């Protein structure tokens, strides 16, 4: 089966992007990273992508009068590159309903909490503030409402009593880097699909992958 062409959308350092690029370096991985697109020219991830030999593009949201025009420019670029799947990886712009609908079930996102808890920003601060003993990260298909949509995989990560948002974010990020490549592989291979707004898995997942997708091992 032909590898799916993936675009990764970033706004910053791109550590999740790097995890996806590294996974896709394996010729057996069902997706290739065809494009890294940033809304910020100074996103650190652009340098890392270029170093890995991946095509990069910048579409500066500030150059557009409206969200709809910015999204239309991104959409045109993605379609011109024959992109099959879009991965949001720290892409910090709200997307219009039209753009999201145009990529329905072909756009996934990673978020640093156990959704539907703590959508939005400052997730680690809020989880600590709430006294949670567990938090984690989620990969999900993207829907119009921010940080919502059918969940593909989640990893639970313990919160230590002396954690700060910074120490916790590092631990969660390690888990993010494990589940995002797995989740993308499932979507790209056609194993993971959506029915009635819930994840459906076609075929039997090897047990090690199935357990990784809900509780990968992680370390500091
Ligand atoms: C990651 O922790 C990702 O989960 C989060 O931004 C960070 C990007 O880091 N995304 C969101 O908060 C989306 N709502 P990275 O650029 O190193 O991958």
Characteristic key phrases:
220 residues; alpha/beta; Rossmann fold; two-stranded antiparallel sheet; 7 helices; globular
Q: What does this protein look like?
A:
The model has no long low-confidence stretch (mean pLDDT 95). This protein folds into 2 domains: 1-103, Rossmann fold, CATH 3.40.50; 109-220, Formyl transferase, N-terminal domain (Rossmann fold, 3-Layer(aba) Sandwich), CATH 3.40.50. Helix 1 packs parallel to helix 6, helix 5 (123-129) packs across helix 6 and helix 6 (165-188) packs antiparallel against helix 7 (207-214). The protein is built from 7 helices and 9 strands. It has helices at 15-24, 44-51, 67-80, 97-102, 123-129, 165-188, 207-214, and strands at residues 4-10, 31-38, 56-58, 85-88, 107-111, 134-141, 151-158, 192-195, 198-201. Helices cover 35% and strands 23% of the residues. The protein is an alpha/beta fold. The chain binds glycinamide ribonucleotide. Glycinamide ribonucleotide (GAR) binds at residues 10, 12-17, 45, 89-90, 110-112, 147, 173, 176.
């Amino acid at each position: 089966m032909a590898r799916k062409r993936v675009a990764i959308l970033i706004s910053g350092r791109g550590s999740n992007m790097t995890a996806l690029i590294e996974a896709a370096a394996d010729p057996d991985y069902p997706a290739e990273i065809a494009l890294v697109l940033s809304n910020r020219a100074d996103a650190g991830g652009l340098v890392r992508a270029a170093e890995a030999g991946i095509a990069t593009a910048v579409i500066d949201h500030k150059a557009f009068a409206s969200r709809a025009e910015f999204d239309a420019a991104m959409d045109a670029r993605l379609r011109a590159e024959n992109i099959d799947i879009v991965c949001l990886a720290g892409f910090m712009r709200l997307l219009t309903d039209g753009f999201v609908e145009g990529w329905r079930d072909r756009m996934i996102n990673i978020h640093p909490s156990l959704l539907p808890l703590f959508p939005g920003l400052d997730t680690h601060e809020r989880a600590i503030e709430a006294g949670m003993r567990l938090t984690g990260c989620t990969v999900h298909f993207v829907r119009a409402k921010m940080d919502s949509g059918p969940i593909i995989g989640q990893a639970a990560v313990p919160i230590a009593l002396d954690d700060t948002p910074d120490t916790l974010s590092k631990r969660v990020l390690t888990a993010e880097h494990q589940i995002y490549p797995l989740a993308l592989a499932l979507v790209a291979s056609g194993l993971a699909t959506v029915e009635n707004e819930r994840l459906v898995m076609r075929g039997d997942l090897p047990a090690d992958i199935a357990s990784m997708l809900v509780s990968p091992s992680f370390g500091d």
